Amino acid sequence: MATRAEKDQAIAELVEDIKGTNVLYLTDASSMNAEATSNLRRACNKGGVRMKVVKNTLLRKAMERVEGKNYSELFPTLAGQTAVLFAEKGNAPAKMIKDFRKKGDRPLLKSAWIDEAVFIGDNQLVMLSELKGREELIGEIIGLLQSPIKNVISALQGGGGHKIAGLVKALESRAQA
Fold first, then answer.
1. Which domain holds residue 164?
2. Nearest alpha carbon to residue 112 among 130, 82, 145, 85
3. Do 107 and 39 touch, CB atoms closer than 8 A?
4. Domain of 105: which CATH number?
5. From CA 150, how far away is CA 154, in angstroms rounded?
6. Residues 47 and 89 placed together within one structural domain of the fold
7. Are residues 143 and 156 in the same domain?
8. 102 and 171: one domain?
9. Among 91, 107, 94, 112, which Cα is nearest to 29's?
């Protein structure tokens, strides 16, 4: 049995872990043997995901102590064995779990907390694995913004320049009429 000081230390460490990320996945890795658990840890490390098996009561207390963030929607999923996955990218743990489960049926996704959005249930796994990261979204937005500009420039540079000039004159004469 852990002493009060050991529990307080564990809670303090969890608070720091939670504060240090915007991506938390709560998983059920129960019924996995030692070899499978070890393989899961290796898959996590390879995928840029940190895994920590925790006591639900300590995790709940740590979540309650993190200021400015509300994890209460995750509390109902704190039952049974819980392994917390911490990551930088919102889809990294989901992709890793999906890939890992090609060899078995665990770990199951209990819930996830990504940039304050809450996802409950294993049925969310596929959708979460397809989430685009911040960098991907910014890249897509830049591409979308550049696309119209590129079209205008290519039209001006190509034979379409005369068409555009004619269109501008037609619009101008309509406005004057």
1. 135-176
2. 85
3. no
4. 3.30.70.1730
5. 6
6. yes
7. yes
8. no
9. 107
List, for residues 68-112, the tens digit of each pLDDT value: 899 999 999 999 889 999 998 888 899 999 988 888 888 999 999
User: For residue 1, what pLDDT is reported?
Assistant: 57
Helix (H, G, I), strand (E, B) or coil at 105: coil
- Other CB atoms within a 10 A radius of the CB of residue 90 amount to 22
Retrieve residue 105's tokens: 């049926």
8 A C-beta contact, residue 120 and residue 58: no
Handedness of CA 77, 86, 72, 127 (dihedral sign): negative
| Number of domains observed in the structure of the chain | 2
Mean of all residue pLDDT scores within the chain = 84
pLDDT band at 13 (very low <50, low <70, confident <90, very high): very high
Shared domain for 15 and 90, answered yes or no, is yes
* Residues 16-28 pLDDT 10s: 999 988 899 999 9
Q: Residue 24: beta bridge partners?
A: 86, 113
